[in-house]
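Annotated sample (chain length 339).
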Amino acid sequence: MAELSNYTSLRVGGSARKFIEVSTESEIISAIESAGDKPILIMGAGTNMLVSDAGFDGTVIRISNNNLESEIDACSGATLKIGAGENWDHFVATTISRGFAGLETLSGIPGTVGAAPIQNIGAYGHEASEFITRVRTYDRKEKKLTTFTSSECGFSYRSSRFKTEKDRYVILDVSFQLRIGEETTPIIYAELAEALGIKVGEKAPVVKTRKVTLELRSKKGMLLNPADRDSWSAGSFFTNPIVDAEIAAQLPADAPRWPQADGRIKTSAAWLMENAGVHKGDSIQGARISTKHVLALTNAGNATAADIATLARNAQIKVKEVFGITLEPEVNLIGLNLL
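Output written by the structure step:
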């Protein structure tokens, strides 16, 4: 049996009852159909999951298909269809090297292309949903191929129909629409603008923006580095909470507030944690909050999944006690629960 700790960025997790690696569409579908109605776990790079020490009592299907098809027009830009198993950052780097713009602020996010629409990954003011045109899937319920346009994907902050309808759709490939260009759209995220040496609302070279984005992520411990245990994480462990305006009004004046279209307010999970008494470097057994960023929970040395879950649960409890807000994990929990 395969030890899942060997396939996850947190380096924890027990064994899988059955483990299959697939690299073509036909292999993916065959593996899914062979599992029947029994539990399956779709795995790409293993960078956004915390697997229990008991492992997974079902079939783990590790997808590595990375075929790329492209159509390029000087006016409309490029339409790219990429296999779900392609490494996300490799894909981003390829688009930039070919002269396309749009994904540069999403550089360095760990994971695969297939995971991007599930979580609707985002960073520095942009989300993957802005560029996704179609998602092609295998529907386990109907046992057929189903393609969704962007408007049918149910995208919202760190979510989609592929996340809310859990275990139904297996993503096979994703299509993106990117423009041709050497400059970004106006930079809207203050931290990134400052690092680029520009004002919010100004543009920057795409290549430089990718470089600076990677530098920022590295300083926060959000770039995986095999030699640095302080980066052995699953990226941001919690999502930024979106709360009713009444709840936001009760937060301290210096709490970050980003108004949403529906009248609710998004605030910062990192700010809530730090102001509730959660600190960089806090540890439980081998699990530790990164010394670089409070949202990165790491395997600092022989941690178990239970250690990391306890560290996360303690952070949730502190934030709940101080601010009355329950932090929701961005990481996919396999065989584990927090609050």
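Annotation: The longest helix spans residues 305-323.
Annotation: The first strand starts at residue 16 and ends at 22.
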